[in-house]
What does this fold into?
Amino acid sequence: MTIEEIKELIRLVNESGVADLEVERGDSRVRIRRGQPFRQDYVIPVPAAPAVAPMPVGGPPAVAPDSTGSSAKPQTLEEGHELVKSPIVGTYYDSPSPGAAPFVKIGDTVEPGQVLCIIESMKLMNEIESEVAGTVVAKLVENAKPVEYGEALFAVRPR
Amino acid sequence: MPLNVERVRMLAPGREILWRASVDSTMHEAARLSEAGCASGLVVGADEQTAGHGRYQRVWHSERDAGLYFSIVLRLAGVDKASFPVATFALGVAVAEAIQSTTGVACDLRWPNDVLVKDRKCCGILAQLYGSAVVAGIGVNVNQTAFPDEVAAIATSLRIESGREQSREDLLAALLDEIDRHCEILAAEGREAIFALFTRASSYVVGRRVTVELGGREVTGVTAGLTAEGYLRLRADDGREEIVIAGGVRPARS
It folds into this structure.
């Protein structure tokens, strides 16, 4: 995990008012606690970006994931926040072309139907859109990294 | 000359074809029609695109009346949603077949679906998922006699390769026919059937020395077949096996 990512997490903690945030990525694990009364734990396990691109285990389910999430990965969210998940195995792109501005940044407000990122699977481009109006509170995947089916990509606080 | 769309309609009866003189990108109109619920197989094409693009918004040079630039809506009835990305392979194989049968030019396929003649690209395919439909944009260099400097070394046309002008109408009709046929193979026989056709038609699947960009790293090695999902196996020079799930594959320099 890079310093930049840790800074982003600290920003997230401050913005969201969460007391305690714990993030795991592969072997790295970061816990950020604020010196305020506890509200609730906020745990987002972030899968490691492996050196070898991951293989889907078994056949991917035939149905698209629902927003409540049936992913095998445990995801505890602050009440009211929604996770945007990848509907396919592929590569995550946070901008329409290399070097271009990202579709969204942390703190941006988004509208339903607004494109958040692209997941590419063998040249099939899948634009992931926000289902809700709200604020992006976390970007959970690094640009150009592989993502698994059902992997959390963003946390959005609906308004 | 503009495309004689009536001739294409005669060769491909029952096909809904919208043909424009000039558009920014055929993908935009096709995506809109797809989301409005149009029938599968609908084609939106143009004699010229002013903002034709490929992956990552790379420019697709779309010279007026020289190539075929069209998008097709594929609802892929009978195909499991998880196999939708395999449609991009089916499209590559279909295009290669149609070019070979119509023009006699032998094509190669570069994973996952670039159509090449002697290592130069003559067709690019970009597919985008809109809800439950795949909208595929297909650009074929047909009668170009030259290309702009920035792509001259990597592009070719069927006219350059065959030494004669080609009928865009005949080629389009053959393309639509082969696209239907290969989507039906995907639905009826599953992705393995498409991977088998792809492996037979492509020099890139097994034993080809290539360089690939993998999550920001450049890896060189020898290709070692497809995985069950269609990803490309690469035996890297450092001895590790890598799986290519996305990204540009190109011949290695050494």
Q: What stands out?
A: Chain B touches chain A through 36 residues (CB under 8 Å). Chain B has seven helices and twelve strands.
